[in-house]
C-alpha cells in the first residue's frame, strides 16, 4: 500500500510527464522545469522538488546549505554544523563529536529527503538542498532564514561527478566516458543543471541581499579556510569571541572538517540511501580536472563559463 508521500509524488509525476524531456546524465531521462533539468524516481528528483516547493514550510531561524552536487556539499555541511553547534559540543571528548562519528550528510539532512520525516525539530534547523534559488519554496525566500551557497570550478565539478557516478555503479544507469559526461554537462542535462544558471541565481540573490545569502566558492575556501570559517560564523549570527579565536577554536573546526579527517571517519559504512560514506571523499583538491580533461574539453567549458558569467564577479 502506498503511503501519503508516495501518493503525493504520483500527483507530480502526472504533471512532469508533460515537460520537455532529454536523455541526460547516466542515460537517464531529465525533465525541464522552470529553467532547470531534473531526473526522476529518486530523492533528488523533479517530483521531490515539486513536493518541497509546494509543501515545505521554512522557519525564520532555519539555516540552509545550498550547492549543486559535487561542489563541496559534504564539507560545507560539516563546517556549518561545527560552527553552529560548537558550544553544545564544547565539553565532550573530541572522539564523541558527531562529525567524528557520522557522515556530515546525517548531521545536516537534505530538504529533499526530510520532507518525508518533516525535518529536525529544534531551532536552528540546519538543512541542505540542491534546489535552484527561483525554485525554492516561497517560505524560504520570504522568511528571514539564512542561506549559505557554495559553488566550485565547473571543470572540477564535472570530474568529481564522473568519479562519483562510476563509483555508485547503479545498474539502472549506463556508465559514461568523460567525453560523454562533458557533452551532457555542457548542455545542462544533469540533475539541477545547467550548472552555470544555478550559480548565477544564487550570485544575484547574494548581491541583492548579502545578509540573506552568503556566496562562497570551494577554491576560496581552500585558500584560507580559517578566514572563511570566521566569515561563515558571522553570517550565521554565531561570531567567534576573541577568547575563542585566542584558544584556537577556529583552527579546531577547520581540522575537524578537513578532508583528511572526514575521509578517515567515513571510510566505512553507508548512508540510508545505500550510498557508501567513503564515496563523498575522493581527492578534495583544486584543479584536479587537468588530469582528465583534454585541452579541447577544457576549452568547451571555459567558453561557456566566460559567456554565462560575463559581467559577474565570479571566478574560480
Ligand atoms: P573530488 O571528487 O574533486 O575529490 P559533494 O560533497 O558536493 O558531493 O562534493 C564532493 C567533492 O568534495 C569531492 O571532490 C570530495 O572529495 C570533496 N570533499 C569532500 N569533503 C571535503 C572536505 N572536507 N574538504 C574539501 N573537499 C571535500
UniProtKB/TrEMBL annotation:
The keyword Transferase applies. InterPro entries: P-loop_NTPase, Sulfotransferase_dom. Residues 61-312 form the Sulfotransferase domain. Pfam families: Sulfotransfer_1. Its EC number is 2.8.2.-. One of its GO terms (cellular component) is cytoplasm. Coiled coil: none annotated. Keywords: Transferase. The keyword Transferase applies. One of its GO terms (biological process) is sulfation. It comes from the Eukaryota. One of its GO terms (molecular function) is sulfotransferase activity. Belongs to the sulfotransferase 1 family. This is Sulfotransferase.
Amino acid at each position: 500500500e502506498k503511503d501519503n508521500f508516495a501518493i503525493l509524488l504520483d500527483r507530480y509525476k502526472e504533471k512532469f510527464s508533460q515537460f520537455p524531456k532529454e536523455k541526460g546524465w547516466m542515460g537517464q531521462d531529465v525533465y525541464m522545469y522552470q529553467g532547470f533539468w531534473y531526473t526522476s524516481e529518486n530523492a533528488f528528483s523533479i517530483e521531490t522538488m515539486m513536493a518541497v516547493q509546494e509543501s515545505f514550510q521554512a522557519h525564520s531561524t532555519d539555516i540552509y546549505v545550498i550547492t549543486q552536487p559535487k561542489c563541496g556539499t559534504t564539507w560545507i555541511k560539516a563546517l556549518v554544523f561545527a560552527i553552529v553547534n560548537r558550544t553544545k559540543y564544547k565539553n565532550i571528548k573530541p572522539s564523541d563529536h558527531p562529525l567524528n562519528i557520522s557522515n556530515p550528510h546525517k548531521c545536516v539532512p537534505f530538504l529533499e529527503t526530510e520532507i518525508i520525516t518533516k525535518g529536525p525539530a529544534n531551532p536552528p534547523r540546519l538543512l541542505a538542498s540542491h534546489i535552484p534559488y527561483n525554485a525554492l519554496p516561497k517560505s524560504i525566500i520570504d522568511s528571514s532564514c539564512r542561506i549559505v551557497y557554495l559553488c566550485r570550478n565547473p571543470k572540477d565539478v564535472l570530474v568529481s561527478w564522473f568519479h562519483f557516478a562510476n563509483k555508485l555503479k547503479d545498474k539502472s544507469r549506463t556508465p559514461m566516458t568523460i567525453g560523454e559526461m562533458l557533452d551532457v554537462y555542457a548542455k545542462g542535462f544533469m540533475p539541477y543543471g545547467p550548472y552555470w544558471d544555478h550559480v548565477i541565481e544564487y550570485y544575484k540573490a547574494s548581491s541583492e541581499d548579502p545578509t540573506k545569502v552568503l556566496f562562497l566558492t570551494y577554491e576560496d575556501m581552500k585558500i584560507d579556510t580559517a578566514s572563511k570559517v570566521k566569515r561563515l560564523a558571522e553570517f550565521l549570527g554565531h561570531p567567534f569571541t576573541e577568547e575563542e579565536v585566542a584558544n584556537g577554536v577556529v583552527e579546531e573546526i577547520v581540522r575537524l572538517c578537513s578532508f583528511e579527517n572526514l575521509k578517515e571517519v567515513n571510510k566505512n559504512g553507508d548512508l540510508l540511501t545505500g550510498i557508501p560514506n567513503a564515496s563523498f571523499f575522493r581527492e578534495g583538491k583544486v584543479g584536479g580536472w587537468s588530469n582528465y580533461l583534454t585541452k579541447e574539453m577544457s576549452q568547451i567549458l571555459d567558453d561557456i563559463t566566460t559567456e554565462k558569467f560575463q559581467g559577474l564577479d565570479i571566478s574560480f
